Amino acid sequence: MAPVPIISSLKVGHIDDVIELRKTKPGTIPQRFVRDITERPTITTPNNKSLIITNHHHHHMPIIDFSKLSKHNTHDDEIFLHELLNLATACENWGFFQVVNHDIDLNLMERIEKMSNEFFMLPLEEKQKYPMLPGTVQGYGQAFVFSEEQKLDWCNMLALAIQPQHARNPNLWPKKPEKLSETLEEYSREVRKLCENLLKYIGLGLGLKEDEFKKMFGEAVQAIRVNYYPACSRPDLVMGLSPHSDGSALTVLQQAKGSPVGLQILKDGLWMPVHTLPNALVINIGDTIEVVTNGKYKSAEHRAVANENKDRLSIVTFYAPSYEVELGPMPEFIDENHPCKFRRYNHGDYSKHYITNRLQGKKALEFAKIQTKNASF
């Protein structure tokens, strides 16, 4: 069977570039972005009381104080053990949490926001020097676009591989703004340290050795994606980013200061807006952790919605196992009450599967599931 042709949205020129669209035709929503009724987000407004998911829910989203883990790291310290339990509960019940006091320099976070904004405000001709080519997730443009019929997300992005070095495409690292690439490097080093530490504590919370994930994942793969969601005259018709879970082990999101609430997570069947605390980072569990814990910790489905009045910027880091590693559920999480749910597979194969398919909820994870035979009559 012939492979499905992959069509880059950039071939069509600026018509599919949401930032250009917002500049030139602020009131227009091309059909390519209008979602089918079943896929449209429910936009809540202050006048629409019945649709509001109250902040009462939001306060339950776990907040992890990283300093209580890093500065009290002795196994008999009550502060440490209490926070470790909070982290374990967050992973098991939510798959999402916010981290405060994370040790990443706030000045660095501010710089990366400022420069990212400057990049997206450059003329389209400049940004198109770094095109995201069909079937790849590096460069500027729109990812996960596989056909001319497919609905597009109301978002432009710049995505770059960070580690391993050989996965990088140096031609796609922007020359403007001048210090952007350098700042991305510095920021990525800091976020990598945070991911390594969080995985250590997540391991301890599961009763594993603290270096268990580090050993299992090998030389971790890291990528960064900066998302820009322009304001949209009809946010009820479009989707900022389609619902999906991440293929990573951990994902770290920084939402730019002053950005409207855009990230939503699916919790107990409801789409819940994430109100980011100032200077906090939002962390979520990816499919990889769901597989190795045999479903004890689950990756959470999430999406982004557009805002009628304000642009939104987010900086997202993906931290995942080496492409060479073979993964499957750890024996610690399999017993007669918890049968094995996933097969063993090569993580590189999974990554390839993930980036060559549209974002559709948790569908990518089916790649790893053990298919149970259902009797059909």
From TrEMBL:
Pfam families: 2OG-FeII_Oxy, DIOX_N. InterPro entries: DIOX_N, IPNS-like_FE2OG_OXY, IPNS-like_sf, Oxoglu/Fe-dep_dioxygenase_dom, Plant_2OG-oxidoreductases. Keywords: Iron, Metal-binding, Oxidoreductase, Vitamin C. The keyword Transferase does not apply. Coiled coil: none annotated. SUPFAM superfamilies: Clavaminate synthase-like (SSF51197). Residues 219-321 form the Fe2OG dioxygenase domain. Belongs to the iron/ascorbate-dependent oxidoreductase family. This is Fe2OG dioxygenase domain-containing protein. It comes from Stylosanthes scabra.
